Amino acid sequence: MTVTGEGPAGAPHSALADTVMERLTAAYGGAADPVRAAAMRAYMKDVAPFLGLPTPDRRALSRTVLAGTPRPAEADCTAIALRCWALPHREYHYFAVDYLRRHAGSLSSAFLPVTRRLVTTASWWDTVDLLAAHVVGALVAADPRLTADMDEWIADADLWVARTALLHQLRYRERTDTERLFAYCLRQSGHPDFFVRKAIGWCLREYAKTDPDAVRAFLVRERGRFAPLTVREALKNIGAAPEPL
């Protein structure tokens, strides 16, 4: 696999990326549906233009695009992700997220800056949340030294970076660093943005599937610091609000 120099969008040159991108733009572009695209763009609050590909159709096309391609090196993943993100239509971003999820176990801690670039470019929940839970989370789990980066991200002024830090443990279950999870929630408890308040509730709700008593006790102790939205979200699957209020 040839990976040298620097290619489009600051991505490393990659023969695999060349092949994938040529196939991808032909397949996705040829299936575009302008009418559906307009509706999808409106639903996603105009974060990006769309081609109008429903998820099942898009993933079927992706399988065709990737048929017969070899397992990528990390530089190939970087090249494909950055080149997809440089294209305007959102479906290319979705392809990149799916590709990174599939190969997250092969990525090193050096890939974290790439994920930050993706999280902070054309940012919206549809890509950020999957990158947080499936890519950033996998990187931190594989290299605990990256928790220091998460400690920086949770305090970041960019709400999507902070949301990523909140959600990176979403799939950890019994491996969750509970102290860090609760500290992150408290760190952003007063955040004015809906997407951060919602993320706090979501990560607590998810951890409640593993340790509901710990989440209840945390909310009893700290409930006054969280927005009602956050508390409702956190307690959605474990019963009514804890007492005492």
Attribute tags:
60% helix, 245 residues, single chain, 13 helices, mainly alpha, disordered N terminus
Question: What can you tell me about this protein's structure?
Answer:
- This protein has 245 residues and is mainly α.
- The protein has 13 helices and no strands.
- It has helices at residues 15-30, 34-43, 55-66, 74-85, 90-102, 112-119, 125-142, 147-153, 159-167, 178-187, 194-208, 212-222, 228-234.
- Helix 9 (159-167) packs parallel to helix 11 (194-208) and helix 11 (194-208) packs parallel to helix 13 (228-234).
- The chain is globular.
- The protein starts with 14 loop residues before the first helix and ends in an 11-residue tail after the last helix.
- Mean pLDDT is 94; it is low at 1-5.
